[in-house]
């Protein structure tokens, strides 16, 4: 077999424009960079991104009434794009940059090549990888908040809400708990992959936003069936499988601890799903697929703060708790207290994320193992679950166990208060500019009134069923005279 000589390069690599930082070709992989870790981190980030786009896009699009499928999916898509722009311009450095105050970093951009090619503050990969990895977590937090206000929040208000909430709420929680300079981080709070920063935050912020936006139309609150359960399941499946990157990527290294975190994540999710399903069968005599999805989500949320720092039996125990306690708060407590029913939480994020997030934070304080914490944090001096401390039985171990529980509870209190205050302030500010809630006329019609589009627009033999009052389809794209199709009045 013969080989032809290689073609000459298209560009002269010795010219300055090829390497604006005067990097030589053999420095594209510097000595400090671990290629396996970098590759895994990029894969993990992509898996988390797929949870949002298209995961939550199609989950929301299938889980709501037909008339809100486009709007619900679009809220998720918009948030993903807006968060990325804000993240590289100022959000990342507010969350992980130099300390401005103990709960916030200094605002700065993360777009300069020199900065992006330097080693990240944790991990043997460049800042560019870390910026992208942390972005997908920030994005999914905003998209989870959207779940609480589907079917009535003014899209223009949402467009303003996303960058403001990211800037003045998410970045504070991320810096405080995840940055090595944050005060709760220094105290020793355990939040392996976002039980506090993402899920508790989105649950509380979503419920608070729902309060300020107001409810859906009464007819929609009373009956709001999914328009496509199979589509919803496809989104849920992407959400579940994407959690491999969600929890598996947070050691910032392709390690044994990452493998443990992935296995614990799926074990807890499966256990929680089955627990929720069994309770539905026992008390409602129906095996509900929507209930099973709720149980899956609560299991994934609950294990997130503990994924790589607890043993397998603890993951099962956490799954049983996450499949039963949020089920009880949603199916029993919520229906008995009118004060909870006054807030219209479309996707029940209060129960699936706030309650499950609180539960995960508490159970992390009970079940975390010092040896596993050392694998993740590199230290055992201040990370010890209460059960382990009581098992050792020494006064010192018991002290550290109770101390860990205290820090976990303090973190819950901090995140709850932060998100109630900052979310309320953001909503009140946005309300000055545009109404938070759509008009009643828009709420009655849905996507056609808001976007001039609808999710399932095919009617008859390929003809479109159009509401010309709201859609510009015939006027701007093709008229009935061109297509030979007469306009059809909706009844």
TrEMBL record:
Organism superkingdom: Eukaryota
Source organism (scientific name): Arctium lappa (Greater burdock)
Name recorded for this polypeptide: Uncharacterized protein
């Amino acid at each position: 077999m013969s080989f032809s000589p290689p073609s000459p390069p298209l560009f002269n690599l010795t010219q300055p424009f090829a390497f604006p930082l005067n990097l030589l070709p053999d420095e594209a992989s510097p000595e400090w960079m671990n290629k396996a870790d970098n590759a895994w981190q990029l894969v993990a980030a992509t898996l988390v991104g797929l949870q949002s786009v298209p995961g939550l896009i199609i989950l929301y699009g299938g889980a709501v009434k037909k008339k809100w499928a486009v709007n619900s999916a679009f809220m998720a898509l918009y948030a993903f794009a807006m968060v990325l722009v804000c993240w590289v311009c100022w959000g990342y450095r507010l969350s992980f940059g130099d300390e401005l105050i103990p709960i916030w970093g200094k605002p700065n951009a993360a777009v300069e090549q020199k900065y992006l090619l330097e080693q990240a503050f944790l991990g043997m990969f460049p800042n560019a990888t870390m910026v992208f990895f942390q972005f997908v977590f920030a994005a999914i937090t905003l998209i989870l908040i959207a779940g609480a206000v589907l079917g009535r929040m003014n899209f223009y208000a949402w467009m303003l809400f996303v960058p403001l909430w990211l800037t003045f709420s998410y970045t504070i929680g991320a810096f405080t708990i995840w940055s090595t300079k944050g005060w709760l981080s220094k105290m020793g709070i355990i939040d392996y992959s976002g039980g506090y920063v993402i899920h508790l935050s989105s649950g509380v912020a979503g419920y608070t936003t729902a309060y300020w936006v107001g409810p859906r139309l009464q007819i929609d609150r009373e009956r709001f069936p999914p328009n496509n359960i199979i589509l919803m399941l496809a989104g849920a499946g992407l959400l579940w499988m994407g959690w491999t990157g969600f929890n598996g990527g947070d050691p910032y290294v392709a390690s044994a601890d990452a493998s443990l975190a992935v296995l614990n994540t799926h074990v807890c999710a499966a256990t929680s799903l089955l627990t929720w399903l069994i309770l539905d069968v026992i008390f409602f005599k129906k095996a509900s697929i929507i209930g099973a999805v709720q149980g899956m989500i609560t299991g994934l949320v609950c294990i997130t703060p503990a994924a790589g720092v607890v043993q397998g039996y603890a993951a099962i125990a956490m799954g049983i708790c996450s499949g039963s306690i949020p089920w009880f708060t949603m199916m029993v407590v919520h229906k008995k207290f009118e004060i909870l029913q006054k807030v219209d939480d479309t996707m029940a994020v209060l129960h699936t994320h706030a309650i499950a997030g609180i539960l995960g934070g508490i159970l992390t304080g009970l079940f975390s193992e010092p040896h596993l914490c050392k694998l993740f944090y590199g230290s055992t001096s201040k990370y010890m679950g209460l059960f382990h401390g009581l098992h050792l039985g020494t006064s010192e171990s018991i002290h550290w166990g109770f101390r860990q529980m205290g820090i976990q509870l303090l973190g819950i209190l901090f995140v709850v208060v932060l998100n109630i205050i900052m979310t309320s302030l953001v909503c009140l500010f946005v309300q000055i500019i545009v109404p938070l809630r759509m008009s009643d006329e828009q709420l009655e019609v849905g996507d056609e009134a808001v976007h001039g589009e609808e999710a399932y627009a095919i009617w008859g033999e390929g003809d479109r069923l159009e509401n010309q009052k709201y859609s510009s389809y015939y006027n701007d794209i093709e008229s009935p005279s061109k297509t030979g199709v007469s306009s059809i009045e909706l009844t």
